[in-house]
Design brief:
The chain has one domain (3-180): 3-Layer(aba) Sandwich (Rossmann fold). α1 (18-29) packs across α8 (158-180), α2 (36-44) packs across α4 (57-72) and α6 crosses α7 (129-139). Strands 2-3-1-4-5 form a five-stranded parallel β-sheet, sandwiched between helices. The chain is 54% helix and 12% strand. By secondary structure, the protein is of the alpha/beta class. It starts with 6 loop residues before the first strand and ends with a helix. The radius of gyration is 16 Å and the shape is globular. It is built from eight helices and five strands.
Length: 181
């Protein structure tokens, strides 16, 4: 496989299932799995919400970019990302160059349902959840479109989503491997 595109990267809005799908995908593909939000919380020694409150979103986005660069320059892995990682063109470009990118999508009402109880833990969802989710989706419209594959997770089982991504990954792997031989 081409070393440059050796990562499988999941992007998408919060609540689309990136962490849940990523956990299962890593088992299925036997790929090391890293989640940017979990990695940042470990580095910060606090939750992302606490870091946002203390340092602000701009500082968080800088740290997110720094971590993304480090991870994508390392050995092949499955990477699940925070929903806002696509806000910076630099991040989109790095992911496009270094990995096979899969966008997980869900209908707004499905996202609201999934996030309902955990909304307080997410700094961008403070206030009325329904309004915030629609506003974030509008703000990020088109920013996930660079993905190699988009999978709608609305009403689907984790296993079904995982299988669709595994099939795509295996085909992408074979195409790259075939070109190298």
């Amino acid at each position: 496989m081409n070393q440059e595109k050796s990562h499988l990267i999941l992007i998408g809005m919060m609540g689309t299932g990136k962490t849940t799908v990523g956990r299962e995908l890593s088992k299925k593909l036997k790929l090391e799995w890293k989640d940017t939000d979990q990695e940042l919380e470990a580095r910060f020694g606090c939750t992302i919400a606490e870091y946002f409150a203390r340092a602000g979103e701009a500082a968080f986005r800088q740290e997110e970019t720094r971590l993304l660069k480090m991870l994508l320059n390392g050995s092949p892995l499955l990477l699940t990302t925070g929903g806002g990682i696509v806000l910076k063109e630099e991040n989109r470009e790095m992911m496009r160059e270094k990995g096979v990118v899969v966008q997980l999508f869900a209908e707004p009402e499905e996202i609201i349902r999934r996030l309902g109880r955990a909304a307080d833990e997410r700094p961008l969802l403070q206030g009325e959840l329904h309004t915030k989710v629609y506003a974030i989706m509008k703000e990020r419209e088109g920013l996930y479109d660079f993905a190699d594959l988009t999978v709608d997770t609305t009403g689907r089982s984790v296993d079904g989503v995982v299988q669709e991504i595994v099939s795509f990954w295996e085909k992408a792997f074979k195409r790259r491997f075939h070109r190298l031989s």
